[in-house]
């Protein structure tokens, strides 16, 4: 069992990962500035697991704070979720994205190096792939120039981390390229709680279902896909959380930098998401067909064979579970954690 620092652990994916870490017997320290989350998520994680974790409200850009954390807690490895993630916002305020994501990751790596901690699992994204690649996307395919500043920060951080492992063989770093995380823990006690109008499809659908939004706008119905709407690879957040535990185990006994796709390998269209949500949950989702959203690609889904072969990871949940669990969370928490 290991002592794990989870940056951004109060957030959507972080809270689900903390729960799985505690259930697996690890000791967990969370560092989060709560800029996009609530400490209530961690209270619920502790109630669900009947185990405690240590929460520190702080910022990854604060090197002195990180030094203090590493002095006070013996840490074996870091899972790094902290960062800003709104694509549209990243076009409006790029410097904030460069600072929180890129400078924040450098600050974290510097503090890890000072503390002698060299195992890191980083939250990357499928957005780093070149848009010209044809799905299923595999890890050997070229990365490209992401169309937005958020994606650009993920690409830069991946490259910086890779260079770090080349320069200093003490580092061992996992780059997990997430596809589209959705769903929630079975209990419905923790889930995705975006602030303001959701950018992502799933929280938008559940907020329509619960009556917080009038109707779903489907962005683009003339793509070259099964029904004209965009195709993505939706992955249950609990499967995604477990991928971090597998990556952690892999990195505890390895050196260097390696990327893994975390997706199911199934391409699902927006209309299929909407229709299946209605069938599984027995609620209607009013919708309209709207113009394409700038920067969207028609189709993106994973070749996940590397993660399955090398990490011993296997996704357990299908689309119906994802949609039932998303709705279970939203229904029980119509206003999220507030
Ligand atoms: P989230 O916003 O729920 O979680 C991120 C957490 O980091 C939040 O709790 C926030 O308060 C915290 N945070 C932000 N800046 C910080 C800072 N400077 N110092 C300390 N804490 C800070 O987002 P999420 O969906 O759980 O995503 C987690 C990670 O996964 C992010 O890095 C995100 O970019 C990446 N990712 C997410 C998706 C997705 O669709 N959700 C897809 C690919 C990659
Ligand atoms: N989408 C949509 N309406 C919304 C939000 C998203 O039609 O309100 C579509 C979007 O165009 C894409 C898919 O849903 O085809 C997934 O979008 P999301 O923003 O969730 O993830 P992305 O793949 O863009 O990171």
TrEMBL record:
Entry's Gene Ontology BP terms: galactose metabolic process
Keyword presence, NAD: yes
Reaction(s) the record says it catalyses: UDP-alpha-D-glucose = UDP-alpha-D-galactose
Keywords, sorted A to Z: Carbohydrate metabolism, Galactose metabolism, Isomerase, NAD
Keyword NAD: yes
Gene Ontology CC terms: cytosol
Residue stretches spanning the membrane: none
EC number: 5.1.3.2
GO molecular function: UDP-glucose 4-epimerase activity
CC cofactor: NAD(+)
Matches recorded under Gene3D superfamilies: NAD(P)-binding Rossmann-like Domain, UDP-galactose 4-epimerase, domain 1
Domain of life of the source: Bacteria
NAD-dependent epimerase/dehydratase domain span: 4-263
Pathway(s) annotated for this protein in UniProt: Carbohydrate metabolism; galactose metabolism
Family stated for the protein in its record: Belongs to the NAD(P)-dependent epimerase/dehydratase family.
NCBIfam families xref list: galE, PRK10675.1
Self-association state and partner proteins as the record states: Homodimer.
Listed name of the protein: UDP-glucose 4-epimerase
Organism: Acinetobacter indicus CIP 110367
Lineage summary: Bacteria, Pseudomonadati, Pseudomonadota, Gammaproteobacteria, Moraxellales
């Amino acid at each position: 069992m290991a002592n794990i620092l989870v940056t951004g652990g109060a957030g959507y994916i972080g809270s689900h990962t903390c729960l799985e870490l505690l259930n697996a017997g690890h000791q967990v320290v969370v560092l989060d500035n709560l800029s996009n989350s609530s400490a209530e998520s961690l209270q619920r994680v502790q109630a669900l697991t009947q185990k405690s974790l240590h929460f520190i409200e702080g910022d990854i850009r604060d090197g002195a704070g990180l030094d203090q954390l590493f002095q006070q807690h013996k840490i074996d490895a870091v899972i790094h979720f902290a960062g800003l993630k709104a694509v549209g916002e990243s076009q409006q305020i790029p410097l904030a994205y460069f600072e929180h994501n890129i400078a924040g990751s450098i600050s974290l790596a510097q503090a890890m190096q000072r503390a002698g901690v060299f195992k890191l699992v980083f939250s990357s994204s499928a957005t780093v792939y070149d848009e010209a690649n044809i799905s299923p996307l595999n890890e050997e395919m070229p990365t490209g120039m992401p169309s937005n500043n958020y994606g650009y920060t993920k690409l830069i951080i991946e490259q910086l981390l890779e260079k770090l492992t080349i320069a200093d063989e003490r580092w061992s770093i996992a780059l997990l390229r997430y596809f589209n995380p959705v769903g929630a823990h079975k209990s419905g006690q923790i889930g995705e709680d975006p602030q303001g109008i959701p950018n992502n499809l799933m929280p938008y659908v559940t907020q329509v279902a619960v009556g917080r939004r009038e109707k779903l706008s489907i962005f683009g119905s003339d793509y070259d896909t099964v029904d004209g709407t965009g195709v993505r690879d939706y992955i249950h957040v609990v499967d995604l959380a477990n991928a971090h535990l597998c990556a952690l185990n892999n990195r505890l006994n390895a050196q260097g930098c390696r990327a893994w796709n975390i997706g199911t390998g199934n391409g699902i269209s927006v209309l299929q998401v909407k229709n299946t949500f209605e069938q599984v949950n027995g609620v209607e989702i009013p919708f309209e067909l709207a113009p394409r959203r700038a920067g969207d690609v028609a189709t993106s889904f994973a070749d996940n064979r590397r993660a399955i072969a090398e990490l011993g990871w296997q996704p357990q949940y299908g689309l119906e579970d994802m949609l039932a669990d998303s709705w279970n969370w939203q229904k029980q928490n119509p206003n999220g954690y507030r």
